[in-house]
Amino acid sequence: xxxxxxxxxxxxxxxxxxxxxxxxxxxxxxxxxxxxxxxxxxxxxxxxxxxxxxxxxxxxxxxxxxxxxxxxxxxxxxxxxxxxxxxxxxxxxxxxxxxxxxxxxxxxxxxxxxxxxxxxxxxxxxxxxxxxxxxxxxxxxxxxxxxxxxxxxxxxxxxxxxxxxxxxxxxxxxxxxxxxxxxxxxxxxxxxxxxxxxxxxxxxxxxxxxxxxxxxxxxxxxxxxxxxxxxxxxxxxxxxxxxxxxxxxxxxxxxxxxxxxxxxxxxxxxxxxxxxxxxxxxx
Length: 283
Prior knowledge:
Layout: E1 3-13, H1 15-21, H2 24-42, E2 47-52, E3 55-61, H3 66-90, H4 96-99, E4 105-120, E5 123-127, H5 129-136, E6 147-151, E7 165-172, E8 176-184, H6 186-196, H7 217-225, H8 227-233, E9 236-244, E10 247-257, E11 262-271, E12 276-282
Parallel strand pairs: 4-6
Antiparallel strand pairs: 1-3, 1-4, 2-3, 4-5, 6-8, 7-8, 9-10, 10-11, 11-12
């Protein structure tokens, strides 16, 4: 017998590229850690229908009001961002997985409709045309890496949910035309980064070096963050900058030193106005 339900897919974006380009052992550990952190944060608020590689398929019986659902998706997204920052800060090796974890993102697909529960062996599978529709929407034309997509079948009006919103439409061979609203999670990510930003003062440092430079502060800051100046000042032969989809935070600087050794710098916090930057270095 079919029932009405709300379906939520929490999908890690950038997963395929991440796994294909990094150490497989550490990449699997990182993805498992992120998925488990979200499952723990969910605290049985939604039922778990399945774990599908880099995606958790949640659902609940009946219709969940958009404000309540958005609070839960925000909580899971904040947990995801906190874990990304924690992994970056605590990683003990410069392997591709540990130094590129900031390139991962998270998106949510939310749909509502009918479903049935089918017994397959000792498992219960959630099935139905609306389940297929939700999964089809994982492939869409939303021009963002991290967002919450809410179909019209789920919610007609999401204008008051305190995140930048835009409308979208996609056509699919299987399910036809799907209209939706998507919410940009960028403000949430920025709030998490601001909460986790850490700048070490000279008083708190185990070792500190101070030098007086007879130049305007803005000129000194420009020189400190300049790739060309870093080559000159720090004995670096070559710098490969791996961009982060989240801006300067999460940028990776892979530096080949004059003696042939390699150092990896991961930017974990930056404050342009106060001319402060924190990065973690792996040698």
